[in-house]
Amino acid sequence: MPKKTIRDLDVRSKRVLVRVDFNVPLKDGAVMDDTRIEAALPTIEYLINGGAKVILMSHLGRPKGKPDPAFKMDPVARRLEELLGRRVRKIDSCVGPEAQEAVGEMAEGDVLLLENTRFYPGETSNDPEFARELAELGDIFVNDAFGAAHRAHASTYGVAEHLPTVAGFLMEKEISIMDKILKEPDRPLTAVVGGAKIADKMSVLLNFMNHVDNLLIGGGVANTFLQAMEHEVGKSLVEEEKVKPALDIVESSRTNGVKLFLPEDVVVAEEISPEAKTEVVAVDAVPENMMILDIGPKTAQKYSEIIRESRSAVWVGPMGVFEHDAFAGGTKAVADAVADVPYSFVGGGDSAAAAEKMGVADRITHVSTGGGASLKYLGGEELPGISVIMEK
Ligand code: ADP
Ligand code: MG
Q1: Which ligand lies nearest to the CA atom of residue 346 in the structure?
Q2: Which of 6, 45, 134, 275 has its CA 20 to 30 A from that of 217?
Q3: Quick one: 290 and 357 in the same domain?
Q4: Domain count of the chain?
Q5: Closest ligand 1 atom to the C-alpha of 236?
Q6: Full residue range of the structural domain in which residue 217 is found
Q7: Is 197 an active-site residue?
Q8: 87 annotated active-site
């Protein structure tokens, strides 16, 4: 990776301010899924072992720039304590006298968790004064919050103006796996793109034209392509203003030598519900009162074969409305196949959930912890939270 990481600095006795992504789902005051906390442990443990004073900060949920009891970081601190097996001090502020005192009392190897950064309006507006006050707490800034790297907020971006800035291990892992896929993949490289909104995936599709060998399209995204290819798609979700761009992608796949695949058969129903009566039809026979809600078994089989013949795979967006078993077949098939590929990456929040639900997450090289951020990165965008990390 061209960026500096915590390995490139001496952290002993230093006050290391670490932006982590502890934006975890909570229920009844407890952490429901600690994947993101676990993903930050390698960085935190490395800093503890290196004798740093570890000051952690994160946002949680969407409090509106003021304290909100429902989004306090206390449950996160308790779970982190369990995972680390050592005390984590948690305070009720991010800046000001309480924070400065708490940092002043830290010894080497201590861990302090600040309050939710979004309790301050200056976080999302990247207020220079708030960023400066945060930066005052540390000697070094470590950005390990890949999931928040697409936002230029005070704690992901503004602080970096005042402190030497390096990547943590999670940030490094996310970036280097996507870089490998985009820059020097083991080929063939197959991309699988689905999900609800084609608008979110447009830049990814465009960027993939320069990188992938095969592009398999499913989910709601496929509907717009099918419409572009002049298939009747009934009541399916289609983004009219993206029909032309979809056609351009089909064209570009030809000039770039990308093999682009669209569903040949699909699962249709009149409604999205667990009781919906489903049918499998060819793409040229979608009834006008029905919606395409999954790729069909023939397509799933074909996609699986292409994926299994690949040496790298990148998957963004489920193949159907996988939340209901009746429309989960295509996503299950793709998930199983992606898990069999030697080098695999899953981006997008719902795709990560799908990989988890299908029980394949631990057989995938990396399931991104940053849904939106991974899509932006795969789309070729420079993310603000990465741009501030020092070059090697
Ligand atoms: P990701 O978060 O992985 O980027 P998206 O947010 O774009 O994925 O899309 C995920 C959603 O897409 C899922 O909730 C799924 O139900 C929905 N979806 C998939 N296929 C279809 C379809 N054919 N019609 C409507 N919704 C779909
Ligand atoms: Mg999503």
Answers
A1: 1
A2: 275
A3: yes
A4: 2
A5: 24
A6: 178-378
A7: yes
A8: no
